[in-house]
Known about the structure:
By secondary structure, this protein is α+β, with helices and mostly antiparallel strands. It contains 9 helices and 14 strands.
Amino acid sequence: MTRSLRLRLFAAATLSVAVALLVAGFALVHLFERHVTRHYDTELQSYLRQLIAAVEIGDDGRISLNRQLEDARFGEPLSGLYWQIEEDKTGFVLGSRSLWDAHIPLPKDALAQGAVDSHVLAGPKGAPVRVQERMVVFDQPDGSRALRMAVAMNVSEIEAARRAFAADLWPSIAVIGGLLLLATWFYIGIGLRPLDAIRKSLNDVRTGAARRLDGAFPAEVKPLVDEANALLEAQDESLAKARARATDLAHGLKTPLSVLQSDAERLKARGEGEIADEMASLAHQMRRHVQRELTRARVRGVDAAQPTRLLPVVERLVASLQRTPAGERLTWNIDVPDGLCVAADKEDLIELLGNLLDNACKWANSAVRIAAVPLGAKVSIRISDDGKGVPDDALASLAGRGVRLDQTVPGTGLGLAITRDIATALGGGLNLANRPGGGFAATVDLFMQPKSQRHA
């Protein structure tokens, strides 16, 4: 997961959403509890006003209610809703029927007349109750009387409302969290699209479909795109300079190699054959290496190559060979469908097929056949001759560097090695084999389209 930017962002978003929703959930539950508490306080104050209005003191000094309070719970034992009247001076206590034989231990603190005080105290059977109390002074002929009046409600009702609200809230929070995470995954995908566009553009550059990263990129990734394009530009310049230096080196070596070859011939004419042969051999090896490295530097590869029609290239090469002494005596059979293309630069294809056709021309007795057939995404090109073939034990090393089976035939021994290098660079392969009826066959498999177009 640590290697996936999408998953890392989603994990961070999940954690953030979870923390935010948990905090929000607990905050909402707390706010709801405060709202319910205020609602119950308002209700208790209403009951308190009813209680004050219902209290009367008889001529005999007895305290009673001239009417019952509206809520029937005051008359039900231990219903959770209670009223109580106390007189601090005499210790008189009068309570609702719901208190039964219990009473609420109201604090004996001084209360300002008319002020309402709130408490959470122990009620019947020790259950906590929320109390609203008020001190009321009644003027009587024999003097004023101060009565502490209180109404109370079980806190369990507030807690029950809070639990019911939480039970409904948390599933809703979970649903909201799930929707937020789905939206987050969607937004992360939108946010990462520019990176995917960069990846596709880089693939286009790598496959040769584009030279630079093109497109409208967001300002946040535009500097990255600019740096990548600058890097590609510098890479192209460096590659061009390297190829130019390789070409210059090859051309610079031509004259010294020719001089070395001439010196070897002069030494041989003077009778110093051993030294002359060694010098000629060294010059020959150097020439082969230069030729091969130049070919490697030039080959573009299958990713960058655009489709080239096969038949015109084959016909051009055959026409050139037919004008040579070895080629004009041969029968050339071409079986290549018109319109068949391969993913190879034209010059690379000429180099590849030219080596194979030149080799067939050298060894054929009377005929050379060139056939091409499409096989899936590739084209199989087979060049065969009716010559004497190759010893089976030499087939494996035939395309090796500088291998020549017949030293009497002119050549560098590098043609098949270069052909295999080109075929590999183009994403294909080279197979060399003797024909069952005699002769030799070289088969090259090349793609019909460059990689950037195969799944278009």
